[in-house]
UniProtKB/TrEMBL annotation:
Domain Carrier: 522-554
Lineage of origin: Eukaryota, Metazoa, Spiralia, Gnathifera, Rotifera
Identification of the protein by name: Carrier domain-containing protein
A Pfam family: AMP-binding
Domain of life from the UniProt record: Eukaryota
Amino acid sequence: MNNTDISTSYSWSNTVHECFIKQTQLYPQKLALELDEQSVTYSELLYFVYCLTNYLTDKIQPNEIICQCVERSFEIIIGMLAILSSGAVYCPLSPLDPSERLKTLIQDTSTKTLFIHKSFIIFNYIIKPISVTSDNIAFIIFTSGTKGIPKAIVISHSHLPLYLQSSAEVDAFRTTDRAIQLLSCTCDVHIHEIFGTLLVGGTVILLRSKQGNRNMDYLSQIIEIHQATYVCIVPTLQVLLFDIVEAQKAYSRLNTSFYMLCEPISCRFIARILPKLPIGCQYINFSGATESTVIQMFHVVTKDDGLSELDTVPSGQPMPYFRCHILDQFVQIIPIGYIGELFISGPIMNGYLDRPDLNNTALVQLPDEPDKSYRTGDLARLIPSTGKIQVLGRNDFQVKVNGQRVELEEIQAVIYQSNSSISNCAVVKVVERGRDHLIAYIQLNKTSTSIPFDEKLIHTNFQDHLPQYMTPSLFILVDQLPFNSNGKLDKAALPKPNLSSLLLPINNDEISNDQDNEISMTNEQQLVHDLWCDILQLDVDSKIPINRSFFSLG
């Protein structure tokens, strides 16, 4: 692949913030950030970073964790760079998460400093020299954990630049790029979007917080207005984006490259959409785990993928500096085409913060590898005809739901907290009409003292403790969960969910409103109703309760 326009005039072995300073020296007046009509040059961005860094150095110790919980803005990137420049550890939190979850994450980090979204003081003196070595921690980021306990992944300064160099070498980042910063700060790929762009002299285009990252009409307009050259996006949102541009016959908006990630990509989707894209629009499938520093595999998608007999596009081949091993249960190499567990070697995580029990399981020493490798828990195989890696799913309780990695046991823990009469529960992922749904099956104690199951109450409990994407679409009561002869949950024997029941009222208020829907619905409400039916692929005659949340419908 061509990487001739990648800036390589400095050593990638430096820390990320030092690499950014080098880019500022090369392109001081080039636009670094854009947000609607506002913009910030590289030199202006560095000035703001210096100001905040000076403020921090008088108040924190090296390797101290700083949590940042701010909306999409210039400040989020200023904060990221200032935290790293001050020798502290960057830990992103989402302001959209429930307060109880935020409290838990903040307590887990033992942080003394929290950045929130408000103006900070501007200082007018030169930054003090700060020694940050490659062995220092660059950032930690939380992922869903078992038993309801999130896991904090630790990544060092030495591994972060090496990963970014790896991305540049496969042509993911170029000096001429104008990149949309689409993903949430709690998703590790936001580091890929921001630092990957800035460290080669590109421009980061930010989205308004109120528009969010799920308004695909808004996104398609931003791509066109700002002449974006690449977007990292999960396939679920990509389908919605193409539905919008297809309906409006506005494919010219998408004269950009797309980097698909986090989810398998349907070969049927590629066959449908690739021929309609403008010349020069490139697709790359990125795959990886946060534990292995964001992304470790890539595959350039072509029209041949649309003709493939496979269900999904391959994960591809390892990025430079990463090595992938597919091994059996005894950690031995298996023949090509056989299914095994995926292990990743290279610039991976230091480990989970204060979780030696998990580190002993996740980090293993493989023969011929100088350092420990990450045991992903993913099932994978080498495709015999191409030698590409195909990831087939998880071998534990983790699933990907609309691009977000979810630990099912964390969801189960919240279910148990909701009602003391719940004796057993299981959460499974189902796909209906191309959309992911989490379905919770619940078994109650059959005693005289049992507390009645209240779905409204359990929804409230989820709102208080977990993000929206971790809330099941349906809660189904069963007399007994089915198990096979090995004592494992027999998913095939679970009752098939009736997803049309998502349209039924949850409580008495919705029943009352539902009865008056046809009478009381305004023209604007009817328009929103019909749009929801279109997006969710429901019959336009479906009667969605007027007070129902969009996200509760899947």
